[in-house]
Amino acid sequence: MTCVLEARSLTKTYDTGGVEVDALRGVDLAVQRGEFVAIMGPSGCGKSTLLNLLAGLDRPTAGEVLLDGERIDELSETELARLRRSKVGFVFQFFNLVPTLSAVENVELPLLLVGRRRREARRSANALMGDLGIGDKHGTAPLLLSGGQQQRVALARALVNEPAIVLGDEPTGNLDSAATREVLGLLRAARDRGQTVLVVTHDSRVAAAADRIVTLRDGRVAEAAALEPPRPVTLPFES
Amino acid sequence: MSVTLVKLAFAGIRSRVLASFLTILLSGAATATIVLALEVGATARDPWQRTFDAAHGAHVLATSPSEAEARRLAALPGVAESAPPTVSALAIPGDDLLQLVALPPSTRIDVPVRIEGAGVGKRGIVLERSFAEKLGLRVGATFRFAGHALPVIGTAISPSQPRYPRSKPGVGWVTLGTFERIVPDRSRWNWTQAVRLANPAAARSVAASVPGAVTWEDQRAEALRDSEPIRLILTMYTIVLLAVVFAVVAILVGARASQQYREIGLLKAVGLTPRQVTAVFALESAALGVVAVAAGFVAGALLAPRLAAPSAETMVGAPTTVANPWHLLLASIPVLLVLVLSARASTRRSTRFSVLHAIQAGNPSPAGRSRLARMISRAPVPLPLSLGLKDVLARRHRARRLVGAIAVTGAAVVFALSMQASLDARPAGEASDVPNELPVLVYTLDAVLLVITATTLIAVVLLSVRERVRDYGVLKAIGLTPRQLTSSLVSAYSALAALAAVASIPIGIALYVVVYSASGGDAADRVIAPWYWLALVPLATLLIVAVATSVPARLATRISSADALRYE
Amino acid sequence: MRELFLALLAGDGVHGYELKQALEQEFGALLPALNAGQIYSTLARLERDGLVVGESVEGDNRRKRVYGLTEAGRAELARWIAAPVPGTRLKDEFFMKFAVLASAGLANPRTLIDGQRREYMQSLRDLDAVLAANGNGAAAELLVEGAVLHLKADLEWLELIEERMTP
After folding, report:
1. Structural domain of residue B545, as residue ranges?
2. Contacts with A139 from chain B: Cβ below 8 Å
3. Looking at CA atoms only, how far is residue B9 from chain A in angstroms?
4. Chain A contacts of C127, Cβ < 8 Å?
5. How confident is the model at residue A239, as a pLDDT?
6. What is the mean pLDDT of residues B337-365?
7. Where is pLDDT greater, at C68 or A109?
8. Is pLDDT above 80 for B257?
9. If you count residue pairs, one on A and one on B, with CB atoms under 8 Å apart, how many are there?
10. Burial class for C88, CB neighbours closer than 10 Å (0-12, 13-18, 19+)
């Protein structure tokens, strides 16, 4: 198993108005290809910071980030952008859909960026949205969709390129139980397809779906645990 | 409550120095133009009066082919002074080049005021000053016409004689002997009776009883008509400037209103009604307008005399500053009205609805459903351009106003180019109908427009970047490179501006044609700027816009994604 | 169990045999299978308590007993329908275990909690697998989702216990 994403002694300090905040203090993490890893921890423990650094959305104060064995913390913005568009799909907590584009235009954006032709991109985006149950909303403005629908659009946008790495920051943070199930299903499906999934979450249900749970506390890795494969459950009902 | 509103308005002004400055500059220019248009004629009143007094002018003048008819005027009641009628005739039958007037030494009323050389004397001709200048004849030269040759012994001006090219034929004064020699045919003679009245104010009623009589007020009006073309151009620029004021203020205020939707929500929570909130913005703009109007009035009043130069050619002394306070009122009404309406129009949407709607109205909505946006999606344009265009078009009103401002500014430039082309096309040596100050004024106004529009554009792009910081973070996270981000902004605005500039060419030409013919110009003399000059307009616009937007666009890319996404 | 019988007998006269069938079909494996004897003995007890009344009726070949509700039985049923299931549940197996062992010093509190947390997480995983299997009926899904939510609450509670009760 190859190590697809790695953090070595990752440190990040923020300077907010003269006060220094240590968000991460030397975090080591190695994610293997095809793993589903959940990062948990109390709020303020640095989970989102870690994710941003791993995605190349921010630069560490010290330490290294490696993607497919190559350091990305020293790449230029342009190189990072090109890397992200082909290899990384990011699902944000607050969806972060571009409001001036319709839902399907949001979803097809990564495809257009890697150079797929307009019509193909549109077709793939529509298909994926159909799989996610939001096929009829493709022309709708993001602001007019419900939270669950927006999250699904965001997820579609992250998955449409079939990126090797799927990163999620509280991808079920604003969803109800049913929508959470759907999103989990999609993330699991991605993992089953061979994509690597890394989510930051405070939802135990999401964490329970992961192959490995990494807990951060105060900017450091407190523990890492892996669960067993699911045990059989006898339902009182007959199906 | 009103005190609160006023305080809020002033707090708003202080916090937005650039926008306030732009508004004042633009409104001031508009005011100055209006004041100029109103006063440019009036600045010639005093000089004309001086000329009239110096010439011992005629309160009423009557001209007739019959001497008896003309003398009737002298017999009317109210006439205080009269003199024997003078004779005049076209020097060459049917040719409106020269009208000879026989000036006996006994003339006491409406005596031409000597400017250069001698008065009427043997064997010579005294030319009216503007006529002489137009023909390029100085004292001592010989005036040849229809086989005659007369030495020019002097130049003079008369309150009853308007400026030459505008009023034809030109006038030359000769002795009666010379007159009889050149125009022996008495049937072609016209007799002019000049009288002065005991009560000059009664001139009109006296003139009414004599057909074809002209009062001193008519003479003055005719003399002041010289400023017509200038006034027309000024009126045109007034409209142009007011239109740009409307667009620019709407953009600036609208942008601020949507930025402050939270503040608006707070204001409403405190108890202000939507109408009152709109009133705050309108009040701000009006306050700025008051300052602008005062400054513009002063500027306009001071500049007006300099634009009245052509009129001064037929008068004694230079045009005077008028500074009529009524003009201040007249100028302030349209300017303040436009400011208030513009502010109202742009903030109405943001303040009328509930806070939720305000948030949604403040947020750009996708242009997805509009036909234009669908066209863009389908067009084979590169991705950054299509993203940028959708971005710009999402704020439909702002884009429309910006395009409007650019188109109108471009039209003003085209107008100036055409004016310059017409001036250049005149044969060399011909005195221009147009004072030197006018091109300078036109170029200055154009420069003001250009500066304002360019600054507004930069402000709009900066604003746009600030509003969309989070979206840029997202786009970068998805994989847009910094260069693609920059180019999306620059290309979108450049495309819009280029379109506006292309549209401005026909508008500018139309403006020029209308003003030219309304000011009595001959269509045959009218020259529109050549195509290679006109082509410069969209090219220059493209260049200016590309440069103006590239700096703020660069700023957009400096934000790191993580910071952008945290930005609330 | 009694209330269940009352609900099933609410209609017109029901045979003991029909009762058995209903129990098997509708509540299949929810309850342990009851044999005829147990059914009839429950019916007898209900009759003795005056909630149910039996009547012998001429059937096709033999005499059957048909059961129906008495007034008291209907009243009891109505009471059961109206009264909600008690909400306050102050019994928790882990809490009791934790309290006893921790105070007796027999186990490390943190270890206990970590272990339980692991068990809850694993259960979550197990239940999610069931849901993902997608072959369940609507009622089964609801039950599983309910269990998931309870587990999430229990996990939160574990955090709280850890915060408050461990040094």
Report:
1. 369-568
2. 368-369
3. 30
4. 233
5. 46
6. 67
7. A109
8. no
9. 99
10. exposed
* Beta carbons of C118 and A181 less than 8 Å apart: no
Q: Residue B141: which residues within 8 A CB-CB, separation 6 or more?
A: B151, B152
A&C contacts, CB < 8 Å: 71
C143, A213: Cβ pair inside 8 Å?
no
Q: Let me know if residue A23 belongs to a domain.
A: no
The count of domains in chain B is 3
B117 occurs within a structural domain = yes
The answer to whether residue A25 is domain-embedded is no
If asked whether residues B152 and B215 sit together in one domain, one would say: yes
Chains that touch B (3 or more CB pairs under 8 A): A
Cα–Cα distance for residue pair B377/B371, rounded to 1 Å:
10
CATH code, domain carrying A195: 3.40.50.300
Q: Do A139 and B471 touch (CB under 8 A)?
A: no
Averaged pLDDT for residues B505-524: 82
Q: Identify whether B199 is part of a domain.
A: yes
> Residue B51 in contact with residue B157, Cβ under 8 Å?
yes
Rounded Cα gap, residues A196 and B107, in angstroms: 111
Residues B396 and B516 reside in one and the same domain: yes
Q: pTM of the prediction?
A: 0.74
User: Quick check: helix, strand or coil at residue B144?
Assistant: strand
**Domain membership flag for residue B51:** no
Q: Single out the residue of A189, A207, A231, A239 nearest to residue A37, CA to CA.
A: A207
Per-residue pLDDT at B359 exceeds 60: no
Q: Hey, are the CB atoms on A85 and B368 less than 8 Å from each other?
A: no
B154 and B284 both lie in a single domain: no
Residue B486: closest CA among chain A residues belongs to which residue?
Answer: A78
pLDDT (0 to 100) of residue B568: 40
Residues B106, B216, single domain; the answer is yes
- Tell which wins on pLDDT, B369 or A124: A124
Q: Say if the Cβ atoms of B481 and A142 lie within 8 Å.
A: no
Indicate whether B418 and B556 sit together in one domain: yes
Mean pLDDT over all residues of chain B? 82
Tens-digit pLDDT profile for residues C144-159: 889 999 999 999 999 8
> Chains that contact A by 3+ CB pairs under 8 Å?
B, C
The pLDDT tens digits for B290-305 are: 999 999 999 988 888 8
Give the alpha-carbon dihedral of B291, B296, B298, B301, to 10 degrees: -160
Judged by CB atoms closer than 8 Å, whether chains meet at A204 and C121 is answered as yes
The pLDDT tens digits for A5-15 are 999 999 998 87
Contact B565 A96 (CB under 8 A): yes
Select the residue of A209, A225, A235 nearest C125 (Cβ to Cβ). A209
More confident residue, A171 or B360: A171
Q: For the sheet containing A70-71, what is the strand order?
A: A19-32, A3-16, A62-67, A70-71
Residues 6 or more apart in contact with residue B228 via CB below 8 angstroms: B41, B519, B520
Domain membership of residue A213 as a residue range: 35-45+77-226
Q: Which residue blocks in B157-227 are alpha helix, DSSP H?
A: 176-182, 203-208, 216-224
3 state SS of A121: helix
Q: Which long-range contacts (CB under 8 A, 24 or more apart) does B135-142 make?
A: B135/B170, B136/B429, B136/B431
Of B337, B365, B393, which residue constitutes the final position of a domain?
B365
Residues B437, B456 share a domain: yes
B141, B172: one domain: yes
The answer on B332 and B269 residing in a single domain is yes
Q: Is the pLDDT of residue B18 over 80?
A: no
Mind listing the pLDDT tens digit of every residue in chain A (239 residues)?
578 999 999 999 887 777 888 888 989 999 999 999 999 988 777 888 899 899 888 889 999 999 988 888 888 888 888 888 889 998 887 768 888 888 999 999 999 888 888 889 999 999 989 887 788 888 888 888 888 888 889 989 999 999 999 999 888 877 788 778 888 888 998 999 999 999 999 899 999 999 999 998 888 888 888 888 888 888 776 54
Among A23, A33, A36, residue whose Cα is nearest residue A63: A23
CA distance B485 to B464: 13
Contact assignment for B366 to A100 by CB distance below 8 Å: yes
CA nearest to A207 within chain C = C121
